[in-house]
Specification:
Six copies of one chain form a homohexamer. By secondary structure, chain A is an all-alpha fold. Chain A folds into two domains: about 1-55, Up-down Bundle (AhpD-like), CATH 1.20.1290.10; about 60-120. The first copy, chain A, is about 65% helix and about 0% strand. The interface of A and E includes residues 78, 98 and 101 of A.
């Protein structure tokens, strides 16, 4: 465990402003522990939240697809906190059990073939290398 | 570079059967170098192809979404061959420049927040841990 | 959990010699669990301790800078034990809260841009490639 | 190789504004290929540059220490582009040959002990777990 | 924690068929939690089991050697579940304490020299590049 | 590319002593590029060589098994130099084409199941957790 989370009641105005934006943007009653830890560094808290908000906003990809990609990367990296929080976020965005199973299968398979490509030292096909 | 790729003209019947299935399934004239290297081990070639075919078939997720996830994981892992081949595959499945940009942004952001969560040793919120 | 740690009272002379050197070098009353586990393999215990002692000794870089680098790599790799132990070691060497925040921010940002460079397949600038 | 870099002469106003800020902040005549690739996604270009600028500005840690940490993480992750560019950046910030050797030694040792801690499943010492 | 494991008494016929094959192939009374979780996706359960069974069968390498390699990779990746389960599997296949120590030492050393090779940007010797 | 390799004719006595020990221990006419790069830091060169020599010496595991494990970890980590050099070393120690195929298959499969275990958040079986 790291330090104790920074709670709303003890947050500085700079932290509160971010917490409030997270709560209103996500329509939640409280922020999750990730933000309560980053609150120890208000500059990183603000930059990270604004970056996440920008990256995860609907764009060429819809919010569910974005969450599935975020989850796949977190699973591949083995970050226990991120797997838990982004599984929850993806479910909230509409991920079904069947979708979860397929994201895991793809993540597993990509990790396998990534190593086969490494180990066999496969030269990049000219058709791909542009 | 690894060994020279196994070409169609020199492939064993077991390898040819897989090559032919790849070519007809993907409607391509030739298989890419990854398969020509795995051909050195026909058992791994067959298992890997059949696994990839099963995992990447349309299901709860459409083929484009599946390719985007595969690409994100390959980028996160830094596999140069896989990044090149799956960028090409994703483009063929419909990935636009805007989608590519968003997949990269999510992959980068997930890698960043995964480390922030690690370093701050964020405890998993009870609401996530089910 | 792995096996139970090897305690001072039950250590062989070869293990004791290393434990004693750790305790006197670091001016601590007991060695931490990492060494009590490596004690199951006295050859690895001795080699690892002597290597760590050599690498972390003051040199062109001061001990605090060295600990910050060690922590950043451990966070990037997601090793929970190492994050806990090297956070403590860095604090003991003088890491302030502000420094901790900056090390985390850099580690996160490096992980993000590493993936952006991978995914965009950025060619190395001739000016760098020497 | 990815797409051809976006050069100054063909950049949009949004991209030019970032390029100009990089050039004046770093006192360089041209931006390196990383930014010329990110220019394909001006939103990511701007966010990434502003984040890097904020994170790498002098603070509790000096610019050289920050570059050494960035380099160590990039080496640990095996990002060839990032290793080349951040080796150059660290040298520019004052990294000597001796410092380079020590950063590499620490990065290597941390990767080794991270795996020993994983494999021996070392329990976190109560003294660290706060 | 993820979802509750799928137990034998509540498994579908497709899942039961895999569970029974695992139990008879491995001569165990119950399957371990990994399979009880994959049971949420019977297609992935079946493909993964059949792939593992094929890959881990005696071949040019004996079962113990195969388990040692599986363990080394799992330790290198920092997967806590996999380290625990493959340590147990390797012990069952004959891994002694001395062998365990050597696998850990090699895994640690490879992780160290992998980073030294990255950081020093060592060019591949012509003699190796075939 | 990094700096130019340190050749025998320009090496310091401290470097020469290590080069000579590598050549006589391995019965080779020249050292490979990895050592010629580490020669920029004679302390790291000596420590790394002595550590590798100790770890890879015959023990409870034979030299071929040790090389297979080293190769598997290097492939899993995606270190191009290390994959090339340790494929060559393993072949010299007796690795056949069939063994190579099996090492790759295990490395790929371990990477896949490591991620499935991460993503499904599989709780460690009590029987394993000792």
């Amino acid at each position: 465990m790291g330090r104790k989370p920074v709670e709303y009641s003890e947050a500085s105005p700079a932290v509160l402003a971010v917490f409030d934006d997270i709560k209103s943007s996500r329509k939640v009653d409280d922020v999750n522990n990730f933000w309560k830890q980053l609150a120890y560094d208000p500059v990183t808290l603000k930059r990270t939240w604004e970056s996440v908000k920008e990256v995860m906003a609907p764009g060429a990809l819809d919010p569910l697809t974005k969450e599935l990609i975020y989850l796949a990367v977190s699973v591949s990296n083995g970050c226990a906190y991120c797997i838990a929080s982004h599984t929850a976020a993806a479910r909230k965005a509409g991920m079904t059990d069947a979708m979860f199973g397929e994201v895991m299968a793809i993540t597993g398979m990509a990790n396998e073939t990534n190593r086969l490509a490494n180990g066999y030292r496969v030269p990049i096909d000219p058709a791909f290398d542009r």
